[in-house]
Write a structure and sequence with these properties.
With 312 residues, this protein is mainly β. The chain is built from two helices and 20 strands.
């Protein structure tokens, strides 16, 4: 019997694309939730138009284009010490970010164009083990007032044969240190230089992740990104913040959020070149809220600075 509630995800960065990085259960286990696994995605080829003397179906050829897909959330928490690498840092590297550590200060994740790293992801599931090599994927973050800050990841990787294997006894999950999204723990949010009462924020990297199988090569690549987002805030007088005029004029400016107040458990999100799309309004218990779609761009055609995530 396979107990579906017993799962562990391990992640490690590969030195060479598609070569098993052998994740260590004592150091590479992830703290994940809302976990979804497609153990085998593939292409089925069924012969058509077969001439035969009787009615009937044809069997498919052996599966081709075999891949694994994973999707899950992780808490947006720090590393425990300023300049440390948070456990989810390896996942950011597989989603097209470069990790830059400033000792005793910060661990920054900056976008890259080309040269994206790849991951080996290992799932132990109640006595069955799944492994995917050459994984690359996408990232987003959702922040809800009076709720939580959660990273969301989705990955595609190269399928490896499913095996029987128990969850390793040495598995050590990261210690949960996340804090709620509230004034005490989320001290700052500004958009276009104005501090606003934030209800929710979602930032999406929106990577174009493609699997390709050819003769002599099978791989997953990130072939582009079009970052976007949505911010919902308490509506103010236009003299304080005029989202309508900014959308009308195509104004651009910065978005910045700080979540966490204690060193070692602070997360910053910086988007220096944001444009507001068409705003909409809604009612929340008699209070008017304004929702703004966000277009997120780099500061120049040659820059890679559209989204920066920093752990301090």
């Amino acid at each position: 019997m396979i107990r579906s509630g017993l799962k562990v995800l391990l992640a490690a960065a590969e030195t060479t694309y598609g070569v098993d990085a052998a994740p260590n259960p004592a150091t590479d286990a992830m703290l994940v939730e809302n976990f979804s696994l497609t153990p085998l995605e593939a292409d089925e080829i069924v012969p058509e138009g077969v001439v035969r003397p009787t009615f009937g179906a044809e069997h498919a050829l052996a599966l081709t284009g075999k891949r694994v897909q994973l999707e899950f959330d992780v808490p947006a928490q720090g590393a425990g010490a300023a300049g440390g690498v948070p456990f989810w840092g390896v996942l950011m590297r597989g989603a097209g970010f470069a990790q830059v550590v400033t000792p005793n200060v910060s661990c920054a994740f900056n976008p890259v164009t080309g040269g994206e790293e790849s991951l080996t992801l290992q799932v132990y599931r109640g006595g069955v083990a799944h492994k995917a090599l050459g994984c690359r994927g996408d990232w987003s973050i959702k922040i809800d007032a009076a709720g939580r800050a959660l990273h969301h990841f989705s990955f595609t990787g190269l399928y490896q044969a499913v095996t029987d294997a128990p969850i390793p006894a040495a598995t050590a999950l990261p210690v949960r240190s996340e804090v709620p999204v509230d004034p005490a723990h989320t001290p700052s949010f500004t958009l276009m230089g104005t501090a606003l009462a934030l209800k929710s924020l979602e930032i999406k990297r929106a990577n174009d992740v493609q699997f390709q199988q050819l003769v002599n090569d099978t791989r997953v690549d990130i072939l582009g990104r079009k970052p976007e987002g949505t911010a919902t805030v308490r509506e103010t007088l236009v003299g304080t913040f005029n989202a309508w005029q900014q959308a009308e004029n195509g104004t651009t400016g910065a978005l910045a959020l700080t979540h966490g107040a204690a060193a070692g458990n602070i997360i910053e999100i910086n988007c220096p070149n944001v444009q507001i799309g068409k705003p909409t309004i809604s009612d929340e218990n008699g209070i008017s809220m304004i929702q703004m779609p966000l277009r997120i761009a780099s500061t120049s055609a040659t820059a890679n600075d559209d989204i920066q995530v920093i752990a301090r």
